[in-house]
## 1
Amino acid sequence: MSGIATNAPSPSQVAARARRLKLVKTVGIYLLIAVVLVIMLFPFYWMILTSLRSQVDNVSRVPVWVFTPTLENYQNVIARNNFLTFTWNSFVVAALSTGIGLVLGLPAAYSIARFKQDGLALAILIARLTPYITYLVPWYLAFRALGLIDTYLALTLTHLIVGMPLIVWIMISFFEGVPQDLEEAAFVDGATRIGAFMRVILPLSTPGIVAASILAFIFSWNQFLFSLVLSGPNTRPVPVAVFNFISYGQIDFGGLGAAAVLITLPVVILTLIIQRWIVTGLTMGAVKG
Amino acid sequence: MKTANSWIDRHARLLFPLPAILAIVVLIVAPVVTNFVLSLYDYFVGGRAFFVGLENYQRAATDPRVWNGIKNTFYFTFTAVPLQLLVGIGIAVLFNRDFPGKGLARTIILLPMVATPVAIALIWALMFNPSLGVLNYFLETLGLERSLWVAQSSLAIPSLVLVDTWQWSPMIALILLAAMQGVPTEHYEAARIDGASGWQSFWHITIPGIRSAIVVALILRAVDALKTFDIIYVITEGGPGTASETLNVLAFKTGFQFFHAGYAATLLIFLMFLVLGIAVLLNAVRRRTT
Amino acid sequence: MKVRPLRLFVLLVLLLSFAAASAQEFDWRRFEGSEIRFMMNRHPFTNWLEPLVPEFEALTGIDVNLEVFPEDQFRQVRLLEVSSGADTLDGYMIMPGQVSAQYLGAGWVRYIDDLVADPSLTMPDLELDDFFGGAIGTFEDDGQLFGLPLQIESSLLFYRADLVEAAGLEGPPETMDELMDYAAELSSELVAGFAMRGRGAAATSQTVNLLYSFGGEWLDEDGKSALDSPESIAAHEFYAELMRNYGPPGPTNLHWAEVTSLYAQGQAAMIFDANVFRPIMEDPAQAIDIVRENTRYAPLPAGPAGSVPGVLVWGLSINHASQNPEASWYFIQWALSKENQVRLALFGVPAARASAWADDEFQTRAPADWIEASMTSFENGQPYWNPPIIPVAEVRDAYGQAIVAALEGRDVAQALERAADEMDRIIERTR
């Protein structure tokens, strides 16, 4: 491709320059990667810092970086603000909606995978694409009429809309991957379809089910909009409780930070377990992890 | 028993998905239908409902606040998504190599998108505070002017875009990273032998190789950005004034702060068609590109 | 002397009923085992009350659950719950000047006259007369009582005596013109001369003080919005000039938390907000030393129409659907008893009982200028600091848009006209 230069530098010079260039490039790239990571982590770092500082330090004009950490904010949040109750509420709703989501979603995903029911798959996708708030006004009116505001039932049903489509879409590709021969062998042995589904297909799909469940759990845990309107004193989950923390007249920055840390922690742990699946879940299976 | 089982087997394609279909009908189809009915009423929650025909639609079409909401929705989406695409491609290119701690780095960039949005939004709100926030301290340290961030109308949406970009660029990056792994390495080898620069091979090999992944990422992000609620509601509540009030937030306020269920339903119908319309449009683009 | 049988009969009945009443004496433990739930605003009163609830529980054996929300959300959640008719809510904090039109119209409050009249349910030294007339008056609906006031509140000017003196000025500004001059003198690179709320709807409870003092009103004689009157335009132009020139950066972000934090951190020389925030300025955990030592209080400076602050009265009411009105009434009486109102006053919240203000310890503990400024404000005040119509939230939102526009330097008259039009449309739709 390139022409032959007449007075080219000697090969060793070229090599040295190339090596230097490569070093600069490598250092530059690592630096950029470091910058990306620092930016991604900074809000979390700030969250933790805020949670460990006293109020005066938190509202200082010049940020206080060095200070004696205090756990008082955590004590306040947990003892004074019923944080454990809210956590329990979040847990109950997330677990129930995930469980029901599996019961409804797994057979549907299997059916879509086996019988190529693309229309149904699309319908479930649309449920995921439609803004959640669209459902909220009618739900609110209906639950109000039925006296179901502030019940686990109302929250679980609504959170189902968050979790079930996710479970279905992740599991479709999983079930498609299970060889049909295994199922047919079971039929030959006299198994019914339900039997084959329960005893052959599901056990083979355990990793997918675990990933889908954890994702559905995380999404329910993070859900804010539905809980904001439909929860009450008996069922209030953590995101809404944390939102309530902006108590005017005395913004308790430290308490806010502590609450934010406590609510984020379980999600981070779960993420570490299934990190391979996060993107798959967020993209409704459009991208394989 | 046996006949029951064989009956189930014969109708498996209907029976297996039936519970899920019922749930969707009750929880999704019914509310959407209800919205259409509600939109024909003037209904102040707790009071009486009056049938008003298409009045709510007329009102919405001439309501400057609705147009402002639509404008803000588009402004937010169409600044946030392209920006995230650029940042996402950048991160993907950076990460598409072996370096020590790569696994850890990939885990770290997952955190913004899985962390509870409310918690994230509250922390950003603290950081944005014009007098006490840490972002202005950074600006000052760098010798730049302090900014008002979300406290200034013209900066409210750009600030929210910043949060959204922080949160979601990693997802685009990870989608593209997965796609980049699918581009055959021989193509790069061949290009290198041909003397192509890094930039040229990126432009002529990487980008075409991941084009469909880019489109998928764009669709997913655009649809989600159009209906962003948590971070906007928590950080600005749509303010200052209505400077960052998207259609989504306006509908929420109309329904649950002003309690006009009928008018809120009308706005929700607008929003639903807007989002689904754009999803269909983008999907058509995707079909053409692949 | 002739005895008239009828009189004798009346006397007998009276004696008997008196005997019956004293047989049924007021007993704090009568509703032992009940459980009640009250919804509260995250207000200094609530901060004071929360740790004391166990005292009430020990006294009565009634279990109390307090549900606390930040103010904006509190209104929303309370409305959701009260309008749903759920009987799980027994009582709530309420500001009649804000929502009485709606709550009375919809029948969401329980009138308490029957409870007050029953000596077996009402503590002997309740003494309704002890509450400030202007406070308990807002809980009267055509002669019937629907709750009791817990505090009377008004906004004051908080200012830094040291900065005022250093600038060669004397005392607090007494007129609006002086306020502007002081703000100009006191503002510097690091310290804002003056700050008050500017966050849309949340600011309206403060800007209404200016509206009244410049001679403006919510409605004109025809029941239409008067937000675009010349007086109102003058008031808001003054507000915009004051805040834009001498306020802190980003005034549209200021809620009470921001305003008081800025001042407590020494970043504002004067603020105008509720007198209930005094404890913040005395708390070493929240205010820096120089602020704690040099804060003084004065009434709202006088405008063309005088100094006419809005007076806010918060109180407690019983939910119409409550299944435990008696136990709830016990809680209200206890929380608002003479003794507890003194404790509340000592905590720094302006109590609704005259006896609390007269308390010796209170007089020595609260700064004299704060007491004086507060009393002056209560005298001159206007209890209707919200538009006297039902969709309050919507009107405040529309008015809030105008405030934001004014703070951002847009045409004030135009913004107010738009707000007034919107307000008229809202009134129109309500009919």
Note: Chain C touches chain B through 29 residues (CB under 8 Å).
## 2
Amino acid sequence: MKKLIFTSVFVCVLFGAKAQSGYLGSLNNISFTIKAIPSIKSKWSLNGDLDETKRGPRLAYVNYELGYSRIVSKKIEVGVGYGYSSMKAVSDGLNYFTIDTIQLTNGTTEFINRSFHFLDEPRIDMHQFTFDFRFFRLGSLAPTGKYLGFGLEFGSSKIKSTDDITLGVRGDNTKSSYLTSKYDVSEIRNFNLANDSKSSYFQINANIGRNYPITQNLMLGVGMTFPIFTIYNAVNGMTFGFDVDGSGNSFTDDSNLRNMLQYTQEKYKRISLDLTIKYFL
Amino acid sequence: MSSKHLIFLLVFFCASTSSFGQSEFDEFTSLKSKGDVPIDFTTLSSKKVETDINKNKDDELDKEFFINTRFFIDELLLSGNVLFNEPLSDYVRKVAKYTLRQEKKLFKELRFYVLKSTAVNAFSTDQGIIIFTTGLLAQLENEAQLAYIIAHEVSHYTEDHVREGYVERQNQKKSKGRYKRMSYNDAVHTLSNYDKDNELEADKKGIEIYLNTTYSVDEIYGAFQVLLYSYLPFDERVFDTTYFDTDIMKVPGSFFPDTINQITQEEDYDDEGSTHPNIRKRIDEAIDIIGDRESRGDKNFQVSEEEFNRVKNLARFESVNLNLAERNYVDALYEIFILQHDFPDNRFLDLSFTKAIYGLAKYKNHGRFSEVTRKLKKVEGESYVLHGFIKNLDRQQLNIVAYRHLYDMTVKYPSDKAFKEYFDDYKKEFCLYSNVDIEELKAQNFEDFKTDLDSNLQTFNIEDSIRKVDESDLSKFQKIKLKKKLRALGSDDVKISGDEDFHLFALRDLIVDKGLRDDLRSSKNTYENEIEDEEKAQEEAALDAQKNGHHLGIKKLVVVDPIYETYKLNADRNHGKSEDKKISVSHIYEEPFRKLDLEVDVLDSKTMNANDVAEYNEIGLIKHWMSEIVDHEDLQMLSSSHDKMAEITDKYGTSKFMFSGIYGYKERSEASIMHLYGILLLYTAPFALADLLVVHNYFELVAFEVDAENDKVEFVEVHNVNLKGINSILRVYIYDILHQLSSEK
């Protein structure tokens, strides 16, 4: 498969190079894309004094992508890109952590049996590499006008072991409005991950959009990306150990955290609205 | 000064004038405007609309009137076909000035122009523009007739017929006023009568003006007669059946029809549904108006008879040009025949003759003869003989007649490039497509052949020949065929004259003195190889163009008057926007694109100023040239304007001319089963609904490039695009076209 894609692109680029005028003579462009995935979820954050946790609106999941594209024929543009999202994990909708016991360093266990929430959702870095193929239709000449396309996307995300996971028990609701609400924090604990928590995915997506020329070098693109097929791969059998408050006391329960990583990826890999600025070389 | 000196000076002056006049026709190529371009041509139509709407005090006239009339007339003015500040329009103005000498204020309001057209017509607009066609000036017999037609058209202007006619049409369209509750047929009939009444009113007012002049009253009727027979050529002259004869080639008289279709047009023709009353009614009305009144004189000429004749002849020369461009080759030949009576050995007429006969042979060879000839039953008058003769010639005969004449012209004008170009191209045509068997061409004199034939026929024994056929080894069918022919020879009905073979002897001098047979044989081989190579190269180029676009390697290009037309959702033309966009598109073509190695000159009729008369003439000529090439379709031939394009090619330093048209329009999608599926599938419902509800913008871009060196269309590109034709988008498509034209493999 990889060979086929590579060969097709190579042939197109080599032999199709004179087939088109590109954008006012430019066949190559670099681009910066902001992808926004509409969200109806919330995000949780702690205030500075760590005595209050706030649920706020999460209007969109945002992804940034740098890309390079080449026009290979009058109707076709191909591109590769690197995308990055630095995001807060999505815990909303997941079950909270129920911690029954903590293994103390002295070998004994401390019985807790309490439910913990994410008071401040952990930061996740997601990196992805994309290959895009765009076919310009209804008379449009690549790279201007209307296109349909498909993309292949390989990506991974992780929660670094160096990051703290702040779990806690919510107290009274102190403020509530349509978009935000605040809670007292009745108990807070920091957990350190024993190792990085990773998840990867492969996605085939379709895209539709339109490019508008702005100047002789710049073009604005608006479009939508639709996932068609996605495989997620959270590393199986990995055990997540949590070190409580840096004390060495720990507990082992990876399921929710791993679910959260994949769940967050899923949210980021839904229908996205794409806004691109292309600079023609 | 002694009387001797005076006479000498007079003679000298007359001789100089006459030789100047003759030289004008000797050097004629086509009519051109001169001097400053009038303001009517350099003011934007939208500006005219705005000004005239602000000045308008007539509540019945809506904005649409000003938009439609101003844009329509400006399209005509900017076509490059309207003449100003040159002999024809100057003369019309002089006659108008005399005719309206008692209406000086009125005369100052009017502008007189001449339109290059074979139609016999004149018309006026509510703006005070009065246009006469060259077709009309070519037909008129004297200045008095022109004066009457001027008076008639001026009356349309003074009586506000254009404005009132518009209001009347609007009333009919909207069933208002007297059209209320009227059936469609009655409404059309009423409107037609309204138009006729306006014509009669213009006749009446025109006669009033005319009677104040010293022109002869009789010429009012003369003008009506000119209009009655305007469908005939500008003169009726018995066609000389030796016209195509040369020293070597004698065309037998049997090829020419013995009789002609008589002229049938009557004065009292049926004018039902027409905007003009028939000539009988107009003459009767004129008689009533004139009654016993007498005009102040009986002159046919007041301004200048000499100038009238000059103008008439110039118009007739231009008529030849126009007929050639419109591919009316036989009509052009008949006009040339008439004009050669007064202008023998005229280069323009000789070249036009070459073009006409070249065009006829080309169309005959490629099975498209009916496109350039008329049905004989529709031809009336003396030109019937010529039409009949051309129809009677078969392919080989026509080609040899053409070869003979085209060759002879190159001998008559040995250093004239134009004649040589037509002959060179035709020689190729002759070798490849004429179906003439080179071996059949005779070196013998045609008269000798006929004498030999007569004597052979007298001694020819048919029965003996039949017996010889019987005894021969020929096949059954060959024998039947031959014997049939031999028996027919014995019949009294069949007379063998040999006339049908006249063409085989028409090139005998070239065969004897110039080795024509060998020349044609070797040329044929060369052309066949050339064609084979060309076809192969074209095939490869077409395939390559399909894959990779064109790569013509052009370094300089002239873009000719780019068109932009945009239409509203209801399919009405958006005139104002079209004009703005046309100017924008011209500017895009002129932009210095950073990655394009191509110099572009744009000729744009909308951005002309008073000094751009040369550009105006060039636009007219190039459009004629291009339009004729388009009419030829896939028939590769030199256009009738080929020689005239040389001057423009030299001026711009390139022979590459491009034409482009962009047509923007809006449409709604029609509901289809796909929309239903789209709505049923929840996720695609917004798209399906949007597709149905949103008004879609489209534009179609057509561009083609022609090389004036050989009149070949080298490049054609059509884009049908579902995008709004904003400038930044158009720039991409224009760049793509220019890229294909300039890039090299």
Note: The longest strand of chain A covers residues 197-213.
